[in-house]
Amino acid sequence: MEYINAFWVGGLICALVQILLEKTKMLPGRVMVLLVCTGAVLGSVGLYDKLISYAGAGASVPLLGFGNTLFKGVKKAVLEDGILGIFMGGFTASAVGISAALIFSYVASLVFRPKMKE
Q1: Residues 6 or more apart in contact with residue 74 via CB below 8 angstroms
Q2: What is the DSSP letter of 61?
Q3: Are 66 and 36 in contact (CB under 8 A)?
Q4: CA distance 54 to 89
Q5: CA pseudo-torsion sign 58, 61, 65, 69
Q6: Is the Cβ–Cβ distance between 98 and 78 less than 8 Å?
Q7: pLDDT for 9-61, tens place per residue?
Q8: How far is CA 62 from CA 56, 57, 87, 114, in A?
Q9: What angle do CA 57, 59, 63 make, to 5 degrees?
């Protein structure tokens, strides 16, 4: 049942974002910023952790989950280091995910040998 919940919640998030892109004139970059900020806000009021406990990766993998991760990192760093935690917390919380994305994309570029568009 965990897989089904992850699948339908992640699919619903993606479908809602696709509808937002199709029905508005918002650019993809602005939609991504909106998703990260929404995840941080939902995390700050305690709603996103409940969604993650229900849907697992279906809620933590989309950009909403990235915003929630940034919020949790900043919150933890502020409690430990004070006001400087605002600047450090997001980097520490998301460093592993960002590093993995960079490494795997580099490996994929070596395997598939992408070409520049002409």
Answers
A1: 85, 86, 89, 90, 93
A2: S
A3: yes
A4: 26
A5: positive
A6: no
A7: 999 999 999 999 999 989 999 999 999 999 999 999 999 999 999 999 999 88
A8: 11, 8, 23, 25
A9: 105
